[in-house]
Design brief:
Strand order of the largest sheet: 17-18-16-15-21-22-23
CATH architecture of one domain: 2-Layer Sandwich
Shape: globular
CATH superfamily of one domain: ATPase, nucleotide binding domain
Strand content: 15-25%
Oligomer: single chain
Radius of gyration: 21 Å
CATH class of one domain: Alpha Beta
CATH topology of one domain: Nucleotidyltransferase, domain 5
Structural class: alpha+beta
Distance between the termini: 58 Å
Helix content: 25-40%
Number of strands: 23
């Protein structure tokens, strides 16, 4: 039997999963790594720690699977997307900590770009809005602030990558400096219509082209890993940013199909097929995972603080001992008691795009308890996702009839039911909720001959539970209106 190994490098942990050819989890390993907060609004990771934890989990997953590494037909990489690393080509040493997608330090650079009138150019070529979320301004900041970096970049001595590129470089001893279209599309430097780096945007951000990786389709024989690392030279056959990988793993291959991933943030994507569809409603257009040379697109909305609000309840408020305790605490009250929590800890993402918004809790009364705050925190994830789906439906010109869900928080039945109630459509949880890693495995399997087509992959997708709306639409709309009022307060704060 053939097996596939997926490296799932996320915002808070590195994971590796071995799948069989039917898409079933054989083994899994996970290690958390440090979150570094040098000052408010700044978020960093240690790239070396990312690599060492990722390698360790790959070895642990292979050992737990009790299979010879030579039984692995292909390796797929999926990653936190916009997080930015620059390293020395000669030594492989990072010149600075990775700047994480959540980091807001480059907002002044974004403001300069907007004032220079580049917003339309960026939207038309990259599908994105100008925001500190994306990689381009992070590259600019590193070149401007790390002593000697800009000069070294101009000499061709440095390499930039999102985390997929960093892992591919490490896995191959520096032989591969590559990325795929999905990760490239999140840099604010890549023309997704033409499928190439954009010279005008590179000039606007003063980023030398020599820094950039080669861009390939998401399913592609990129090269082989160094044999000593994992016990055999494994073909790297798939690379995709985590959210596009999840869309692929959910078998959303056709225009109009949508998924939402509930992780540290929440990320909703709707496949738009071969049609580039700029958003008119606060979303971004992005590259979908490309199984071949043909370009594929999606509309995306990102919630900056999704599951991270539960981490805040645990670590900041100390309302719960562990994250899994939140469902029981929230379920101990029938509703939020009028409490509305807008977790704008790092500003608000789509469809609001308010970088200066700050977290607020409104509607507190003498009868409010920590359980009401916990319930409101969970509900905030669903409210933000509902705003994304509404915007997506307006862009698509037709309502979305079903939402496929994945990510750690989709295991929370209370949250999923509330999500279905707000949306007024079925929310469908698959048998395998590790769809991000599964998407990377599927992409690798296509490139390495385990699968013949996406039709074959569609046949492997199985639903676990459908959450059907039970709330009246009038009640749901009233709750959404209350949420939007709270958002306006957070923006004004």
């Amino acid at each position: 039997m053939s097996y596939l190994l997926a490296l799932d490098q996320g915002t808070s942990s590195s994971r590796s999963i071995v799948f069989d050819a039917a898409g079933r989890v054989v083994s899994m390993a996970q290690r958390e790594f440090r979150q570094i907060f040098p000052q408010p609004g700044w978020v960093e990771h240690d790239p070396t720690e990312i690599w060492t934890t990722q390698l360790a989990t790959a070895r642990e997953a292979l050992a737990a699977a009790r299979i010879d590494a030579r039984a692995i037909a292909g390796l797929g990489i999926t990653n936190q997307r916009e997080t930015t690393v620059i390293w020395e080509r000669a030594s492989g040493r990072p010149i600075h900590n990775a700047i994480v997608w959540q980091d807001r330090r480059t907002e002044p650079i974004c403001r300069q770009l907007r004032e220079a009138g580049l917003a339309t150019t960026v939207a038309e070529r990259t599908g994105l809005v100008i925001d500190a979320y994306f990689s381009g301004t992070k590259i600019r900041w590193l070149l401007d602030h790390v002593p000697g970096a800009r000069e070294a970049a101009r000499r061709g001595e440095l390499a930039f990558g999102t985390i997929d590129s960093w892992l591919a470089w490490q896995l191959t001893g520096g032989r591969l400096h590559v990325t795929d279209a999905t990760n490239a599309s999140r840099t604010m430097l890549y023309d997704i219509r033409r499928g190439c780096w954009d010279d005008e945007l590179l000039a606007a951000l003063d980023v030398p082209a020599s820094l950039l990786p080669e861009v390939r389709p998401s399913s592609h024989r990129f090269g082989d890993t160094d044999a000593p690392l994992l016990g055999a030279a494994l073909p790297i056959g798939g690379i995709a940013g985590d959210q596009q990988a999840a869309l692929f793993g959910q078998a959303c291959f056709e225009a109009g199909m949508a998924k939402n991933t509930y992780g540290t943030g929440c990320f909703m994507l709707m496949h738009t097929g071969s049609r580039f569809e700029p958003s008119r409603n606060g979303l971004v257009a992005t590259a979908a995972a490309q199984p071949g040379d043909a370009k594929q697109y999606a509309l995306e909305g990102s919630v900056f603080i999704g599951g991270a609000v539960v981490q805040w309840l645990r670590d900041g408020l100390r309302a719960i001992e562990k994250s899994s305790d939140v469902e029981a605490l929230a379920a101990s009250v029938p509703d939020s008691g009028g409490v509305v929590f807008v977790p704008a800890f790092t500003g608000l993402g789509a469809p609001y795009w308010q970088p200066d918004a700050r977290g607020t809790i409104t509607g507190l009364s003498r009868g409010s308890t920590v359980a009401h705050v916990a319930r409101a925190a969970l509900e905030s994830i669903a409210f933000q996702s509902a705003a994304l789906l509404a915007a997506m439906g307006r862009d698509a010109g037709a309502p979305i009839t079903e939402l496929r869900v994945d990510g750690g928080a989709c295991a929370n039945d209370l949250l999923m039911q509330f999500q279905a109630d707000l949306l007024g459509i079925p929310v469908v949880r698959p048998k395998v909720i590790e769809t991000t890693a599964l998407g990377a495995a599927y992409l690798a399997g296509l490139a390495c001959g385990v699968y013949r087509s996406t039709d074959e992959l569609s046949g492997l997708w199985l639903a676990d539970r459908r959450f059907v709306p039970t709330m009246s639409r009038d009640r749901a709309q009233a709750l959404i209106h209350r949420w939007e009022r709270a958002v306006r307060q957070a923006i004004a704060a």
